[in-house]
Design brief:
The protein is an all-alpha fold. It contains five helices and no strands. The longest helix has 28 residues.
Length: 134
Amino acid sequence: MIKLYRQLEGYWFSLPEKIRFILVGGFNTVVSYFLFLGLNWLWGYKTALWLTYAIAVNLSIFTMRYYVFSSRGNLLEQYIKALSTYVVTIIGNFAFLHWAVEAGLWPVWLAQALYTAISTLGLYLLHKYVNFKA
């Protein structure tokens, strides 16, 4: 079993970094988006956004750190940098959702999808050049 994992890992890390980012980021995005939708259904978008970030940020930090950027730097230092990035992201996300939903521009599901698409490039650049730079 370990041999199979090592083979799969070898194949995975032979993929270009941008492809790994798209795949891991896609996985993280799907998980967090559907988590957001479920929590939104239960408690509304404001509570759902905070709870989703509390869960999804940790998933994203650890999967991006290892499976995309193969970082071997100081874990605590990188975690704090990445967490800082996500604090800024959630503030922007909250402001965008509040503006889009309360103004009646878009339904919550569409506004969140738009923000996710817009923020993806910025997250990639920050992760690559700041957060997980070894």
